[in-house]
Specification:
Elements lengths: L1 E4 L1 E2 L2 H4 L3 E4 L5 E5 L4 E5 L12 E9 L6 E8 L5 E5 L5 E6 L1 E2 L2 E2 L3 E4 L5 E4 L4 E2 L3 E2 L4 E9 L6 E12 L7
C-alpha cells in the first residue's frame, strides 16, 4: 500500500486543485454600517451543462478510521464543489491531478481550523473526511440535468496518514 502523509493546506499548495476558503484571503471591507466585515470573492462556483444551477446544501460528515485507506476518488465534470465547515475543526482533503489513465497519485492536506475548500470543476478528489468527530459543512455545488459524478477505483489502495502519525 502506498503511504501518503497529509500536509498543511495553504493557498499556494492547493492552487492547482481549487480555492482555499478562509478570511485570510481575498478583498475585505466593512458593510452594514461598519458592523460587519465582508471577505469578498473567496472562490468561484461553476455550474455548466443542461439546466445548471448553483446549489447550497448542508451535510453532517462522520469521521473515517485513520490512517485513511483511499481506494476511490470522484470528480464532478459539470461543476465545482465547495465544503465550508460550520465549526472550527480541521478536516482531511485528498486531491489528484488528471493522469493518462485516470487520476494520478493523491495529494493530501489538513485544513486549518475553519478553512474551507472549493474543488475546481472536473478535479479528482476524495470524499468528505472530518477528523475525530462528526462535523457539519455548508456545500456549494452544481445541480441540473446530466450525470455530474464520476468515480474511479484504484487498483491498489493508498494509505493517508496525518502528519503526527508519520512519526509512528
Amino acid at each position: 500500500m502506498n503511504r501518503i502523509v497529509a500536509r498543511p493546506l495553504t493557498r499556494e499548495s492547493f492552487a492547482a486543485f481549487g480555492d482555499v476558503i478562509d478570511m485570510g484571503g481575498g478583498d475585505h471591507y466593512p458593510i452594514n454600517g461598519g458592523k460587519a466585515e465582508r471577505y469578498h470573492d473567496l472562490a468561484t462556483a461553476e455550474a455548466a451543462g443542461p439546466n445548471a444551477r448553483v446549489l447550497i446544501s448542508m451535510v453532517r460528515g462522520t469521521p473515517y478510521e485513520l490512517p485513511l485507506k483511499l481506494s476511490m476518488v470522484e470528480r464532478h465534470p459539470f461543476g465545482s464543489q465547495a465544503f465550508i465547515p460550520l465549526s472550527p475543526r480541521p478536516f482531511l482533503v485528498v486531491v489528484c491531478h488528471d493522469g493518462d489513465e485516470g487520476p494520478g497519485e493523491p495529494h493530501a492536506f489538513i485544513t486549518a481550523p475553519g478553512q474551507g475548500i472549493n474543488y475546481f470543476r472536473n478535479l479528482w478528489h476524495g470524499v468528505l473526511t472530518p477528523l475525530g468527530e462528526a462535523q457539519d459543512f455548508l456545500i456549494v455545488d452544481r445541480g441540473g440535468d446530466g450525470s455530474n459524478l464520476e468515480e474511479f477505483h484504484f487498483s491498489h489502495a493508498y494509505e493517508i496518514h496525518l502528519p503526527d502519525e508519520s512519526q509512528q
